[in-house]
Design goal:
The protein is built from ten helices and no strands. The radius of gyration is 23 Å and the shape is elongated. It has a single domain, classed as Orthogonal Bundle (MetI-like fold), CATH 1.10.3720. Helix 2 crosses helix 10 and helix 3 packs parallel to helix 6. By secondary structure, it is mainly α.
Length: 289
């Protein structure tokens, strides 16, 4: 008699089986939804103006008026966290789009042309790996000055070789498939084959990588802002929140906990989402549990 209870040793079926096979996707999607929700709400509403300074109310403890208290300038911490989510998403989306557009184009071109063209593009990508996002951002700041735009460009450029190498490897596998050989025999040009056959078959792989790169972009933006070369005041940023309170961490540790937890959960959620999407895109990669 089946009473609907999943007992030890009983194979999971129905919703139970789906949940066990997609836990990463569900948890990642939930955490990512919280991040996007905070950012979307902050566009129209925050409990207080995140840039409003109220020295007379500095270091206020969490209360019904200020759920996460106030910082050393009297600003509402919850409002800054919400606005910081918006900044992280904007930086992450734009940076990933830069890497996606340039990297995928280079990878597809290298795979279609092959030979010395492919080799040259891959060696350039290897060279770009020698310049991490933080180092590239420092170079841009020294040349053009600090700011969010330079941080976005640095993070985006750093993502280009990752997308290029992934796209080239995935596309090479598709070019060897029978349906592509049939398309070439039918007289289709390389560009048409790339658009009609190669790109649609590697779109899921690129989407998964874009999710992972988004998480890395959020983390990189926080690191650059912490160093003072990312988003500049008065733009709220989780990384600069950590920088502002580093001398107060033993006096008011919660001021560092809130942005730290926000960064950690956001990156964790996006990574789990990417992991879940990977499993959905290729069920052969799902771990046996």
């Amino acid at each position: 008699m089946c009473d609907g209870v999943l007992r030890p040793g009983t194979p999971a079926t129905g919703p139970h089986r789906w949940w066990r096979a997609n836990r990463s996707l569900v948890v990642g999607a939930a955490l990512s939804a919280v991040l996007v929700g905070m950012a979307a709400v902050s566009v129209f509403w925050t409990p207080y103006d995140p840039t409003r300074i109220d020295i007379g109310n500095r270091f206020a403890a969490p209360s019904w008026e200020h759920w996460m208290g106030t910082d050393q300038f009297g600003r509402d911490v919850l409002s800054i966290i919400m606005a910081g989510a918006r900044n992280s998403i904007v930086v992450g989306v734009v940076a990933v789009l830069i890497g996606l557009a340039c990297g995928v184009s280079l990878g597809l071109f290298a795979s279609a042309r092959r030979g010395w063209v492919e080799e040259a593009i891959m060696r350039v990508c290897d060279f770009m790996y020698a310049f991490p996002a933080i180092l590239l951002a420092i170079l841009l700041v020294a040349t053009f000055g600090s700011g969010a735009v330079n941080a976005i460009v640095a993070i985006g450029i750093f993502a280009i070789p990752t997308f290029a190498r992934l796209t080239r490897a995935a596309a090479n596998a598709v070019w060897a498939r029978e349906f592509v050989l049939a398309a070439r025999a039918a007289g289709k040009g390389r560009l048409r084959i790339v658009v009609e056959h190669v790109l649609p078959n590697i779109a899921s792989v690129i989407l998964v990588q874009a999710t992972v790169q988004f998480a890395l972009a959020v983390l990189a933006e926080a690191a650059l802002s912490y160093l003072g070369i990312g988003s500049q005041p008065p733009t709220p940023s989780w990384g600069r929140m950590l920088s502002d309170v580093q001398t107060l961490i033993f006096i008011h540790p919660t001021l560092a906990v809130y942005p730290g937890v926000a960064i950690a959960l956001s990156v964790l959620g996006l990574n789990l989402l990417g992991d879940g999407l990977r499993d959905v895109a290729d069920p052969r990669l799902v771990r046996k549990r």
